[in-house]
Design a protein that fits this description.
186 residues, alpha/beta, 6-stranded mixed β-sheet, two-stranded antiparallel ribbon, 4 helices, 8 strands, 34% helix, globular
Length: 186
């Protein structure tokens, strides 16, 4: 792999990792008393294989312990039914009662329909639109001491998670209580 490609891959990883952290921060605001852990390896109950979880939430609601597995998808294309199917399999393997997919892109109609009809475990979908993913920084030219010459180079910036909390706290609570489907879209 060339140095340029390696650098681009690192910038992309920083971009989606930052998105995961912002989703974890958002969930901390929703329930500060819950245990919220970012980027965890959890052994699968069915497979016995360690599974990577973007955000793991352990808490209680109405006196009942609840484990919520959160997947943060920072992609440019809409998420499909296959993404929801794979996520349901992961939830079953991890023994999670609920799961939430946060996505920077929208969801396909099939993904929304599949998630809305999923029970035990329940799946929520939340579209959190990021800030424009590509910003430009002025980078000094490679010639040492030549600060006057500058070129624009695309640099990935982490998205800003929109404030969905103020309008959705009751909806989150209903979803966690098993009283309904949660979909927050654009």
């Amino acid at each position: 792999m060339t140095t340029r490609r390696a650098r681009q891959r690192q910038e992309e990883e920083v971009f989606w990792r930052a998105y995961e952290r912002q989703v974890a921060d958002l969930l901390t605001e929703v329930d500060p008393s819950a245990s919220i852990q970012h980027n965890q390896m959890v052994p699968g109950w069915i497979s016995g294989v360690p599974r990577q979880v973007d955000v793991l939430v352990d808490g209680s609601i109405a006196g009942q312990s609840v484990r919520v597995v959160v997947e943060a998808k920072c992609r440019g294309r809409r998420l499909t039914i296959e993404t929801v199917d794979g996520f349901v399999g992961r939830l079953l393997d991890l023994g999670a009662e609920r799961g939430i997919i946060y996505s920077a892109a929208e969801f396909s109609d099939g993904a929304i329909l599949r998630a809305s009809r999923q029970r035990n475990p329940s799946v929520a979908l939340v579209h959190v639109a990021p800030a424009p993913p590509l910003m430009y920084d002025l980078i000094a030219s490679a010639t040492p001491g030549n600060h006057a010459a500058a070129r624009k180079r695309p640099v990935r910036r982490p998205p800003k998670v929109l404030d969905v909390i103020s309008t959705s706290v009751d909806t989150y609570r209903e979803f966690l209580l098993g009283e309904g489907f949660l979909y927050i879209g654009s």
